[in-house]
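Allow me, if you will, to draw on your knowledge of protein folds for a short while. Thank you for your consideration; the sequence and its tokens are set out here:
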Amino acid sequence: MEKIKIALLGLGTVGGGVKAILEEKQDLIQERIYIKNGRKVSLEISKILISHPEKYRAISPVLLTADFQEIMNDENIKVVVEVMGGEEPATNYMLQAMERKKHVVTANKLAIAKSGELLENVATKNRVNFLYEAAVAGTIPIIRTINDSLVANEITEISGIINGTTNYILSKMTHERSPYAEALMNAQELGFAEEDPGSDVKGDDALYKIAILSRLAFGEWPDLDTIDCKGITEITPQQIEDAKKRGKVIKFLARTKKAEGKIIASVSPEEIELHHPLAHVDGAMNAVYLHCDNAGELLFQGAGAGSRPTASAVVSDLFAVIEQI
């Protein structure tokens, strides 16, 4: 049995989910790798980078480290999975890993969007994989769809619900008439929102995601400062009720299109008609609506928040890396 060793950077909500899935689904993943390419391969987490290893008494101390260079200096580690979040030191760690010829998988939409072409260029230069399916739309394989399944298409426009936290909050406010603060607290209790939900509710999270989708669809990065961004913190139950009376629903939408050679992107709550494809996407679900010249209109929907959905997308990227090692 060929062993491929990986390192996890971070063991929070997503990192814990990745570790759990790899342990629980080890046999299934091995079987599917064998079916796909005839190789008997197992994935092994050999190091986990965390700030305070002493706090994780249930995990073997051999696995834990607070020293990133311990991972860099281990030539047997072939893949680094970055799930620590934030711009730094995550971006620097990913760059170092790729310079050491290690493949990188991440869910870090902020680091990707803020770095522009840097991470992709370094991956190309070092001939390693840099995959980030989990960074955009939870369980929806939208990056593979755009890169592989729609190669014969020009995408003219993308709209979507790409933040599960805000969709859950607005759904609670719409269907149960919950005040914003109560809906947010409920989302936090269920693990759909962080203790500090600012990135979600103010729109930054969706902004980074729509920037990534713009890059994939149109071949260039938009200027983040030009993306109109408005969060949901000012939405009131009365606004939602007024929209209902007009036969509409308020959804937090991210949009991007290219017009006259410029990318026009936005993130904001909008009133949409009840017959709109995104009108009934509720709870912590995500949905991405593509307009293509040949394939026409396509709608993709899936879980968009929580430990396991995001971790599932990370593991799918790991599987893709294994195929190419």
The chain has two domains: 2-138+308-324, 142-303. The chain is about 40% helix and 25% strand. The longest strand covers residues 248-259.
